[in-house]
Amino acid sequence: MTPQPNKLPVITFNGETLNPINGAWRSTSDAVRHALEDYGCFVLATNKVPSDLRESIFELSKELFRLPTERKIKNTSDILGFGYGKYALMPLWEYFGIEDGATLEATQRFTDLLFSSGNNDFCEAAFEYMKLLSEIKNCVMRMVFDSYGVEAKHCDRLTESTLYLARFMKYRAPNEGEGPIGLPAHSDKSFLAILDDNNVKGLEIEMRNGEWIYHDPSPSTFVVVAGEPFMAWSNRKVYAPVHQVAMRTTEKEVVRYSLGLFSFMRATVKVPDKLIEDDENCLLFRPFNHLDFLKYVVTEEGRASKCAIKSYTGVTAGVTMDS
Ligand SMILES: O=C(O)CCC(=O)C(=O)O
Ligand SMILES: [Fe+2]
Q1: Count of other CB atoms within 10 angstroms of residue 306
Q2: What angle do CA 208, 242, 107 make, to 5 degrees?
Q3: Are 278 and 284 in contact (CB under 8 A)?
Q4: What is the pLDDT of the chain when averaged over all its residues?
Q5: Residues whose beta carbon lies within 6 Å of some atom of ligand 1
């Protein structure tokens, strides 16, 4: 498989597109919805995150990965993928998660735990950066709800219940004899992810037709990716793409740093009636608790499933709204 160059839609968020009273809001919302339906992801061009903040957070994340292992492993979590991770089976990849990572309190706790003599620059930049990403995520959500004609109060209910995972990731180049895969192919278990990187290629995405493409990074773009729970919420209109990270380089000194803000819902996720009506009353996913779904994902059955959300809460034969 040789992935092809980026063919993802590029959508711009600027002052005009982000104002719901402008016509541009409507057309941008429809573009976001169609991109998520057709590709499950899109490239977001925006200057909402200042470039100096982006540069400093990537510089500061290098400090994080330089810490000694005995410090790194202090970052633990009950939820898989939310703590510190480095696995023998995925030797190129390493990550830190900050649970509730769009809040100052959680970012401060993380900083205090990792940096024994403090690191105010890290704490401030990480919080500021993740807060901006959470605003972008809220905007994407509102646009999708709007484009489907689902009332804003349903969006607010989910938004207010969001649990954020801020993730810092590092991928080294493969050594001789090692394969290029940093993070194996998967679909996300988060609702929505906003991804960023230090302009080093690596993210590869499978299109609906099975073709793989790679994302060509740039300093003013992010990648927005829908996860399985978003697909379920939309009654399978939104696509949750399989993607992976591959370090296809022979230059040993290349290091890819990426950052992601992943959102999870504490409130029950339920297909809006509006979307079921549009599907002639055929409900494909029962209401579910997103955090319980994460527990299912790590069970033997969840791990074995090709699409965990389908085996967790999918309606196989299709039922009517009132059954
Ligand atoms: O590092 C990246 O760009 C992607 C990471 C990713 O797909 C994930 O953490 O689920
Ligand atoms: Fe992912």
Answers
A1: 8
A2: 135
A3: no
A4: 94
A5: 167, 169, 183, 188, 195, 197, 203, 243, 245, 258, 260
Tens-digit pLDDT profile for residues 282-301: 999 999 999 999 999 999 99
pTM of the entire structure? 0.95
Strand pairing partners for 261? Answer: 166, 194
Longest dimension (CA), the chain: 60
The alpha carbon of 255 and the centre of ligand 2 are apart by a number of angstroms equal to 18
Residue 103, token pair as written in the block: 């809040």
> What is the pLDDT, as a whole number, of residue 198?
97
**35 Cα to the center of ligand 1, angstroms:** 19
Confidence of residue 279 (pLDDT cuts 50, 70, 90): low
Per-position DSSP letters for 157-216, written without gaps between them: HHHHTEEEEEEEEEEEPPPTT--SEEEEEE--SSSEEEEEESS---EEEE-TTS-EEE--
| 302 within 8 A of 318, measured Cβ to Cβ | no
> What torsion, rounded to 10 degrees, do the Cα atoms 40, 2, 58, 118 define?
90
- Torsional sign, CA 51, 52, 53, 59: positive
Report which bound ligand comes closest to the CA of 196: 1
Q: How far is CA 275 from CA 70, 201, 212, in A?
A: 49, 36, 29
Q: Does residue 320 surpass a pLDDT of 50?
A: no
Q: Is the separation of the CB atoms in 283 and 318 below 8 Å?
A: yes
Q: How far is the CA of 321 from the centre of ligand 1 (A)?
A: 35
* pLDDT classification of 7: cutoffs 50, 70, 90: confident
